Automatic annotation (TrEMBL):
Gene3D superfamilies: Porin (2.40.160.10)
Species for this entry: Alterirhizorhabdus solaris
Taxonomy, superkingdom: Bacteria
Protein name: Porin
Low complexity: compositionally biased ranges: 59-79
One Pfam assignment: Porin_O_P
Amino acid sequence: MISPLLRGGCAALALIAATPALAQAPDADLAALVRAQAAEIAALKTRLDRLEGTAAAAPVPTFAGTPAPGAQAGAPRTTQPFAPQLAPPGPADRDVERAIAARDNPSGVTTEWGAGLPVFHSADGVYTFKPRGRILTDVSTSFGSKYKGRNLTTTGMRALRLGLEGAVGTHFFYQFESDFSENEVDVVTAFVGWRNRLRPGLDYDVRAGHLFNDRGFEGSTGSDSTPFLERTTVATAIIPQRGFYGIGIMPRLFWKTGHVSLTVTGDRIDGTQAVSDSRTALARVHWNPIKTDRGVLHVGAWGFDESLSSVAGSLTRNTVIGGRFNGALRVSTGTLTGGTGTTGYGVELGGYRGPLWLMAEAGRRKARLDAGRPDFVSEAWSVSGGFFITGDLPPYNPRLGSFGQPKVLKPTFDGGPGAIELTARYENLDYTDLVTGGDGWAPPLGGKWYLNNFTRFQVNAIQWHTDNRARPYTGGDDGQTLSARVGVTF
C-alpha cells in the first residue's frame, strides 16, 4: 500500500522543481504557472490513488487454487466445498488439491469460520486445526399400541460429542471424537491418515484407527446429517455384528464421479485382549454417471464379510422401527446364539434434481450358525425422498456418496427464512427366516428447518407396524410415534 509519506514527498518534489520558474515569471504569468503546477500535482495524486486501488483489489487464491471473486488482500481464507450446497470440509476431509492450496498460499495466522467452530491456519500454511462438536437432543412420544408398555414419552441425547481434527502439511491428517450421550465416555471416531494424488483427477487417502463404516447411503451418513431422526432399516439391520465402528485400516480411491473404499477391522474399542478379535472386511463403491450443477444420479453397491470371535457368538438383534428412544418398540429376532460369522450386501439408487431428492436402498444379511444349523437370512429395504420448499439443493456430497452438512442459501441469522425441507419414507424389515424372528414396516413423514449451516430443528411423524414372535410384545401391533430434535453441529 502506498504510504501518505510517499504521497507528500511526490508533491514536494513537484513544487521544488517548479520554484525556479516561479521566481523568473512575470506577475501575469505567475498565476497561470501555479494553476498548471497544481493540476500536475492533482494528476499525480490521482495516478497514485489508482495504483493503490489496483494493489488493494488484487485477488487472493482460495484453497481450490482459483481466485475468489471480490477477494481483497489480507482477506480470510475460505475452503471451497465439494459441492456449492455443502459447508466447507474440515482439515481431515479435504482432498489433496485443497491441502496443496493451503500450503502454497500462506497469508499469516488466520481463522476461518463458516461451519460452526473456527478452523485455525498457521502462518506458513503447514498446520491446520479445528475443534469439533455435535449436540442432538431428542424428545419422543409413542401411542396407539395395544401394549401399555410401548406407549411411552421419553427424552434423550442422540449425540453429545466433542473432538478435534487437523492436518500437518499436505498429506498427514487426524481426527478424534468422544461421545457422552449415555452419561459415559465412548470413543467414536479416532484415526490418523495420509492422502496423496496419483494423477490429476485421481487421488487417495488411507485411514487407520477407530473407523466409521463406509456402508450404504444412510449407513455412511453421519448422525447429524441423516434425512430422518433415525437411519433406515437397511443401515441399522444389514450391518456387521460389531456395529458402525471397528479398529482397522481403510484405503479410499477418489475420482471426479465417484469413489471406492475397502475396510478391514477388528472389534470396536474395548478392554478384551484374552481372545482374538472378530474380523470384518467391508467394501463400497459409488458412482455418479450424471453430475451437473443442479442434479446428480447416484449408483452404489457394498458388501461385508465378518468372522466372529469365540466370545462374540450372540446374533440377537432388536432393531429400531418407530424411534430410537422407545426401547420397547423394536423388531426382534428373539434370542439367537452360536453365531460364527455374517455376510451382508446391498445396493443404492437415487439422486437429486434441483430441490427434490430420492434414494432407494436394499440389503440382505446372512448369519452363519454353528452345530449344523441353517443360516439365518434377514432382509430390509427403503425408499426415501425430500423436497426443499425454500429452493436449496439437497446436501449431497459427490465425493463420498452420502449426505453432509448443508450450506443454507438464506440463513435466518441474516434475515432469511433458512432452509425448509419436507421428507417422506417407507421402510421394511424382515427377520421371519427365524422361527422366533419378527417383521415390521414404517412410513415416516418429516420436516426439517435449517436455521443456518449448522443449526436445525427436525420433526418426524411415524406410523409403525410390528409383528414379533418373541416376548414380551408378540403378535401384530400398530401405533404412532411423534419425535422432535434440536441439532447443532460444530
